[in-house]
Amino acid sequence: MKRIFLVLAICVVSYGVSFAQAQSGQQQQQQTQNAMGILQSQYGGTGQTQGTGISSASMFTSSADLFRNLQGQGMTIQPPPYDAPVDTSKYLLGPGDLVNIGIWGATPLSYTLSVTPEGTLVVPAYGVLTVGGMTIAAAKDYVSKMLSQQYKSAKITLTLVYPRTFYVVVAGEVKTAGRYTATAFDRVDRVFTEANLPKFVGDISPLPPFSLRRIKLVHSNGTSQRVDLLKFYQSGDVSDDPYLQQGDAIIVPRENFALGSLSISGGVKMAGTYEYVHGDRIKDLLEISQGLTRIADSTHVEVFEPNGHGGYAENIVNLEDSSSIDMPLPANTRVVVPIDRNKMDNFYVYVDGEVNVPGIYPISPDTTTLAQIIKLAGGFTKWASLPTAVIYRTREPNVFTPPQPTNPSFFTNRAADVTQEDLSYASQELSMRAGREVVSTDFVKLFVDKNEKYNVTLRAGDSIYVPQSQRAVYVLGQVRYPGYISYQSGWNAEDYIAAAGGAKEGAENTIRILKQGTYQWYKPGETHIEPGDLVFVPRVSIKPELYSWNLFKDIIGTVGSVASVAVTAILLIRTLQGK
């Protein structure tokens, strides 16, 4: 009996040892396969068909299937964004590029391989193929030629699955110079933008004064090219934003207008002054300014080129002539694109205030009148104050206006025969015109008296404002109770001053009336006081006692001087007569 139990115990132990060895063997095999999978994910096939002896899987039907299989092997792949299909005639394969080789025969095979650091592809069941430095197109032909020797009746394909990453250097006027990772599908602007991102959360430091037009892209083979990101940002032409290559260096200089500039104004979408780059053409300047507006006159563009003597030589250019826009420009050229007014169709005026339908109304150029627009606006409300209604005129929309001095003293200082008091007044008037001007007309005479003389023709951008009748006159200055006085038909300035408690002691007799709307000053009797007008009572200027004594001394001194000159003249005359 004991022998039976002993035999059973030995059997159980033997079975346990065998089971443990089997499990251990499976774990070792799994570890070996995992290690092989990692190796294959870098430099070998990750998706072979049955019969390869390494691993088995179905053929990939899409890139998504391929990525899922790679991620199942332990690789995490996030495809980069692409702005266009890869150009197989230009893209150079290098270490880290992931490609797929398909062998389409009786038994289809698919190998997803990574280019090794030596620039080779390790193709299972075949060997090593050197593709580093080849374009994709050249590699396709080479791999097809080599594998066709073994797979004679199969169609051989090579496809780029995932681009490699590499380092590029950014130096110069950027926030953070240094090395940045990029792929062969990244352009200069992507890395340039990354180099100018805030250095930390909350970083509000200004951007460096970098040049967008003179960026230099230096390649590892010693060649270089200029990058014009301003043209790329303005026109969207990717030819001004080239792809990056392994080993590239992006050199960003400081913006420097001392090297020259170009300016363009008038009928363009983004007028301005821009850095000059040798070889710039009118075509380049148009791209930077985002092209012509719809109302630009492209046939009579004025080009002012420096003549070398501090002046400019003017040329008229037709932009429809390709030879003209491709002509290089010298530094500091100024281009003015005129406006073709016949192309304008956005003529409109604004109507606001006491009309029944305020709003924006279209007009016909040089045709629509004030009365026609008021009719379109539904006429005046019962609260409208016609005497104070006004038309303001501003710059016409989308019309180029040459720059003019904004300081009124520029004009008034040129008047040599005008008194200082008149110059001061003219300066104030010009200051009032700086923002908007008033169109001379009379709403009462037009709409009440039906006098067509005041039915002015409107221009684009005009603003018609009809204020509400206040039914009051404002009295201020040297009166006892300044403020609003209810309007009374037929009252004159003295009546309103009396209603305001009368003039205080020291008030001057130079009373003035300020008209609402036109803001013109009148003396009493020169105008009828209307609702909204202002009656101003100035005060007498009180001079100090010393002022009177100094004035007396000046008068005596002047009289004495005149008398002395007269006596001297008489004595001289008598002396001459005596001779």
Describe the structure in your own words.
With 579 residues, the chain is of the alpha+beta class. Among the domains are: 39-162, no CATH class; 165-255, Outer membrane lipoprotein wza fold like; 258-343, Outer membrane lipoprotein wza fold like (Roll), CATH 3.10.560; 472-537, Roll (Outer membrane lipoprotein wza fold like), CATH 3.10.560; 544-579. Helices cover 28% and strands 21% of the residues. It has 13 helices and 25 strands. Strand 8 and strand 9 form a beta hairpin. The longest helix has 42 residues, at 2-43. The protein is elongated, with a radius of gyration of 45 Å. Mean pLDDT is 78; it is low at 1-10, 17-68 and 396-406.
Task: Please specify the SSE layout and strand pairing.
Blueprint (H helix, E strand, L loop, with lengths): L1 H42 L19 H10 L25 E7 L4 E6 L5 E4 L3 E4 L5 H12 L7 E8 L2 E8 L5 E6 L4 H7 L20 E4 L5 E4 L1 H7 L13 E4 L8 E6 L5 E4 L6 H7 L12 E6 L5 E6 L4 H4 L7 E5 L10 E6 L5 E4 L7 H7 L13 E4 L15 H4 L7 H14 L3 E2 L4 H5 L15 E4 L5 E6 L5 E4 L6 H7 L12 E3 L6 E2 L11 E4 L7 H34 L1
Parallel strand pairs: 6-10, 11-15, 16-20, 21-25
Antiparallel strand pairs: 1-2, 1-5, 3-4, 6-7, 8-9, 8-10, 11-12, 13-14, 13-15, 16-17, 18-19, 18-20, 21-22, 23-24, 23-25
Overview features:
579 residues; alpha+beta; Outer membrane lipoprotein wza fold like; five-stranded mixed sheet; 13 helices; 25 strands; 21% strand; disordered N terminus
Unreliable runs: 1-10, 17-68, 396-406
Number of separate strands: 25
What is the mean predicted local confidence, pLDDT?
A: 78
What class do helices, strands and sheet pairing give?
alpha+beta
Strand order of the largest sheet: 7-6-10-8-9
The helix fraction, in percent, is 25-40%
Strand content: 15-25%
Main sheet summary: 5 strands, mixed
- N→C terminal distance: 185 Å
Radius of gyration: 45 Å
